[in-house]
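# step 3/5: fold
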Amino acid sequence: MALRSRYVGPDELKQTPLGDIPVVSRQAQLVAITEAAIVADFSGGGFSVLYERAPTGIDNERVTTALVLTWQDRGQTKAQPESDLQLTPDQVEHDDEHAAAEDAEAQQSEE
């Protein structure tokens, strides 16, 4: 069971009758949603997007000021905290050695 969330905050300002409002650009929205879709494609499950919106001072117009994307591996998932992991230099060196060994094996199989 897994449940993960990601906050996407404003990355540009929009000029409105109420003044400048920090908003999430469409580009940032597309990138975040695409990344969530890639996770769902790779891992299964599904994701949702919750939009925070703010008025601009123009009747019936609002802009997106933040997003929260939530991915879950199944429909009735309960939140579980993600454990912290701190890599030590020994682990990083081991991973580098392992990757080098895999590269050498791949080169030998190509020859």
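# step 4/5: annotate
Residues 53 and 64 are 5 Å apart (CA to CA).
# step 5/5: archive (pending)
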